[in-house]
Design goal:
By secondary structure, the chain is an alpha+beta fold. It has helices at 4-131, 150-154, 165-179, 195-212, 240-252; strands spanning 136-140, 143-149, 184-192, 220-226, 231-238.
Length: 255
């Protein structure tokens, strides 16, 4: 008995300590299990969040790719549009330039015609004053036209190509009116029923203009017509050949 009591006491103490340790261990296990469950739950939620985030990132990547492609297509379309607009603008500028050149050409032609018409009116007025109101003077196809019977210039002798003295004064007034204006020339056309007579009469008028009234030879033209009319037609007109060449070069050079 002496030794049994302490032993029992020690055993009880040991049993009590062991029981307490089991409870503490159980509590720790339960605590750890709870922490593990919380961690597992948190991990699962984190995995779900990561999956959702990854899906969002993939979606954003897809959207960025689509936007990038759209931007490329938009930039390509804009470049095409700008290129087409530039070409159209250049084409319009060329068209406007061509229209401006044509307008300048037309203005030049209108000015030239107006100038010739104005000079023709001045010459017509001068001739009516110098030749008299009864003179057969008019404007035809842009030229001042003076009509005269052959007998008034060459006399009444049949076939004569000698110019009467009185007719030289008449021709002199015409030459004076023509020489006042640069670029105008004189044409003499003789009409009769004989080619040879018409030719010699036209040549005689040309010689008088050149020799007696100092009209330059390159500003005189003569022609003969065989027909029923017995008259001489003298015209004062612009140099149609030079005027035609000027118009042709003006249009050709785009001036």
């Amino acid at each position: 008995m002496k030794y049994l009591l302490p032993t029992l006491t020690l055993l009880l103490l040991t049993t009590g300590v062991f029981a307490q340790s089991r409870r503490e261990l159980k509590d720790q296990v339960e605590s750890l299990s709870s922490q593990l469950d919380s961690t597992t739950t948190l991990l699962t939620k984190t995995q779900r969040d990561l999956g959702s985030a990854e899906r969002k990132v993939n979606s954003l990547d897809t959207q960025v790719t689509q936007l990038s492609e759209s931007n490329k297509e938009l930039l390509n379309n804009m470049n095409k549009f700008l290129s087409a607009s530039t070409q159209q603008s250049n084409s319009m500028n060329k068209t406007l330039k061509a229209l401006e050149n044509k307008e300048a050409q037309l203005k030049g032609l209108r000015d030239a015609f107006s100038a010739n018409d104005s000079i023709a009116l001045i010459i017509l007025t001068d001739l009516k004053k110098s030749l008299g109101e009864n003179a057969q003077v008019g404007v035809q196809n842009g030229a001042i036209t003076i009509l005269s019977n052959n007998s008034s210039i060459f006399g009444s002798k049949t076939g004569s190509s000698t110019i009467e003295a009185s007719a030289k004064e008449f021709l002199g007034k015409i030459a004076t009116a023509a020489k006042k204006h640069q670029g105008f020339m004189v044409s003499a056309e003789n009409n009769s029923n004989d080619w040879a007579i018409s030719g010699s009469r036209a040549a005689a008028i040309g010689e008088v203009f050149q020799n007696d009234f100092e009209t330059p030879a390159n500003e005189i033209k003569t022609s003969a017509v065989a027909g029923e009319k017995d008259l001489t037609i003298i015209r004062i007109h612009p140099s149609f050949d030079n005027f035609y060449l000027w118009v042709r070069d003006n249009i050709k050079n785009g001036n």
